[in-house]
Amino acid sequence: MLSGRRLDLLDPSPLDVEIEDIAHGLARVARWNGQTRGEHAFSVAQHCVLVERITGELNPRLTRQARLMALLHDAPEYVIGDLISPFKVAIGIDYKALELKLQSAIHIRFGLPAKASTVLTALFKKADLIAAYYEATQLAGFEPPVARRFFGIPPQSLRTPRLVPLSTTDAQAQFLQRFKRLAA
User: Fold this and answer.
1) Closest by alpha carbon to 171, among 40, 1, 16?
2) In whole angstroms, what is the distance from residue 114 CA to residue 108 CA?
3) In this structure, what DSSP letter does residue 73 have?
């Protein structure tokens, strides 16, 4: 990692996880394999900030700790990338186990439970699908009826975000700023 840490992907230690490495990596991983409108790719860092915001709108009484877990929901992608689910299966290894092991190390590093509760996991998944709907319709060229088939219909009570892909520098800064606010 740029921080000088050496992260063992098969046996990740929380001591080798740095938020700066996560922010740097996520800002450089493109959602939708980079197939989005705009001068820049829409990064996983921006996606994580969006999912955390939607999670907070879905449940305004969430603790900072739960919102921090929402922000970090895709944090393992800072080293393993953003692979679509069918490809993860095709790889032939237990990719999900690797991802969960890394997620656990990240959570422990920042004082969070190693694993989110099933209730929070379901909330994060719902927010993730809502974010995917907005990304698909605003950035990836999906027509709303097609996006609804894949991701469902966002609740009308939510504010519709205006998504603008940021430069890697700005996406990294946005992610770090949100992290620092939630971790304070």
Assistant:
1) 40
2) 6
3) T
Phi-psi region of 104 (alpha: psi -120 to 50; beta: other; left: phi over 0): alpha
SS3 30: strand
H helical segments located in the chain:
19-27, 44-58, 64-71, 77-80, 85-91, 95-109, 118-138, 144-151, 168-183
Q: What is the pLDDT of residues 14-51, one digit of tens each?
A: 999 999 999 999 999 999 989 999 999 999 999 999 99
Quote the tokens at residue 112: 């969070």
- What pLDDT score was predicted for residue 92? 64
Judged on CB neighbours under 10 Å (0-12, 13-18, 19+), 14 is: middle
pLDDT in tens, 86-117: 666 677 667 778 889 999 999 999 999 999 99
Measured in degrees and rounded to the nearest 5, phi and psi for residue 144 equal -50, -40
